[in-house]
Amino acid sequence: MAISVDDVYQKVLAIANKEQRGYITPQEFNLFADHAQKEIFEQYFYDLNQFDRMPGNSMGHSDVKDIIESKISAFEIWTDLANTTVNANGDVNLGQFLLYRVVEVMVSYDSNKNYKPAEEVTAKEYRKYSESPLAKENEKRPVYIHDASGFDRIKIIPPPPAVGSVIINYIKKPLTPKWGYVVSQNSNTALWNPGTSTDFELHPSEESELVYKILKLAGISMVRNDIMKAGQGMESAQIQQEKQ
Fold first, then answer.
1. Cα distance between residue 124 and residue 216, in whole Å
2. Are residues 145 and 130 in the same domain?
């Protein structure tokens, strides 16, 4: 379900090069492509929050909230950390998973895999709850907090024993897109190399928006108002159509 990075690059070049308005190098394109994909991906969550407050409809194929959730679900992962190091203090390093956001943490304190959902709390909430005999965390009501050293690290309290295990449900970041190339010895031009390329991981419906956003960024970089405004105008029209 990926979007071909070469298709996007060729469309961007076709529009930018019209009437000799400018050329975008592969290096520039890769930087703009990464920024554009991140921007679209981040917007999913803001749009979901916006449309979550609006009444939907019974037609799943046209309900905006369902469409956004479907796009996000492609990045949702369940992983069992039974074979991953969870130290004795309950610290878990999730950096290896291209973590964007933790959705749910399930903890088992025995070998029978009786998982309990761990509640996410802030450091302030944890300090407050830990002082209350009734609210204090325990194996029936575990909690987790984000580690001070980064959002890709969490601490589970109480920590699971060696026989226990942890399941994490998380949203992963999309892979960084890359238009890989080799330089032709005959023409000294860049030729697409599929073997070193990485496609966009977004839904196919986002292809047009990727083109528009990359054009806008290219126009800003080249100080070309015509290219920037062309990309900005097409992007605005696309957004208006989606939110009608």
1. 42
2. yes
